[in-house]
Amino acid sequence: DTGVSQDPRHKITKRGQNVTFRCDPISEHNRLYWYRQTLGQGPEFLTYFQNEAQLEKSRLLSDRFSAERPKGSFSTLEIQRTEQGDSAMYLCASSSPGQGANEQFFGPGTRLTVL
Amino acid sequence: GNSVTQMEGPVTLSEEAFLTINCTYTATGYPSLFWYVQYPGEGLQLLLKATKADDKGSNKGFEATYRKETTSFHLEKGSVQVSDSAVYFCALRTYGNNRLAFGKGNQVVVIP
């Protein structure tokens, strides 16, 4: 399967701990996106990479959140000093440039529970 | 800013019934419109899209028409199956903007 993959699928942590999620996009895609989805809501945009450059960040991405894409391939999203309000599904998506740029392909998500 | 509004509440209907899910939008630019579907335990999948006014997106028996005059992109299917049970999200993206703006989603439950 060559779709977007995310790891782990589930993460339970205690408040105040740091967590890191990984996303592997579709191999030929140079654009990568992170979204957050809380229960009963649609996904909300967090940040966007084109290759290794982080070009856009939502105001939802507080200073406890950091995302990287060091070699323009996989990406990590780290949350420091987690809070209960961080509990959500974290979705990664990727897309290619050019004609297909509109279509974002989503991974299965990482469900974070902060106790 | 950009926003998407979907009708409130889950939708429960019998197999072979007609399905409509309403979606209206507000956009600062000229958006492309999408319907995504999320099956239980799976990631979001693009169901269909339309990139300009009066375009009709279609896939798997689902259709939606981009109505600029009413700023709407309602999803329809003439005869639903149990396998169509999922959560459906309407979304938009404006030109030059990298983020998708999603509605809250509608859970559809099809009863045999």
Number of helices of chain A: 0
Helix content of chain A: under 10%
* Mean pLDDT value of chain B: 94
Relative strand content of chain A: over 45%
Report the C-alpha radius of gyration of chain B, rounded: 13 Å
Q: How many strands, which pairing sense, and closed or not: the largest β-sheet of chain B?
A: 6 strands, mixed
Uncertain runs of chain B are none
Explain how this protein is built:
The complex is a heterodimer of chains A (115) and B (112). Chain A is mainly beta. Chain A is built from no helices and eleven strands. Chain A has strands spanning 5-7, 10-13, 19-24, 31-37, 44-50, 53-57, 65-68, 75-79, 88-95, 105-106, 110-114. In chain A, the strands form two sheets. In chain A, strands 2, 4, 5, 6, 9, 10 and 11 form a seven-stranded mixed sheet that branches. In chain A, β5 and β6 form a beta hairpin. Chain A is globular. The mean pLDDT of chain A is 92. With 112 residues, chain B is mainly β. Chain B is 0% helix and 52% strand. In chain B, the strands form three sheets. In chain B, strands 2, 5, 6, 10, 11 and 12 form a six-stranded mixed sheet that branches. A four-stranded antiparallel sheet of chain B has the order 3-9-8-7, with no helix packed on it. A two-stranded antiparallel sheet of chain B has the order 1-4. In chain B, β5 and β6 form a beta hairpin. Chain B is globular, with a radius of gyration of 13 Å. Chain B starts with a strand and ends with a strand. In chain B, 37% of the residues are buried. Chain A binds chain B through residues 3-4, 31, 33, 35, 40-45, 48, 55-56, 58, 91, 93, 102-109, and chain B through 4, 32, 34, 36, 41-46, 49, 51, 89, 91, 93, 98-105.
Topology record:
The complex is a heterodimer of chains A (115) and B (112).
Chain A: E1 5-7, E2 10-13, E3 19-24, E4 31-37, E5 44-50, E6 53-57, E7 65-68, E8 75-79, E9 88-95, E10 105-106, E11 110-114
Parallel strand pairs in A: 2-11
Antiparallel strand pairs in A: 1-3, 3-8, 4-5, 4-9, 5-6, 7-8, 9-10, 9-11
Chain B: E1 3-6, E2 11-14, E3 19-21, E4 23-26, E5 31-38, E6 44-50, E7 56-59, E8 62-65, E9 75-77, E10 86-94, E11 101-102, E12 106-111
Parallel strand pairs in B: 2-12
Antiparallel strand pairs in B: 1-4, 3-9, 5-6, 5-10, 7-8, 8-9, 10-11, 10-12
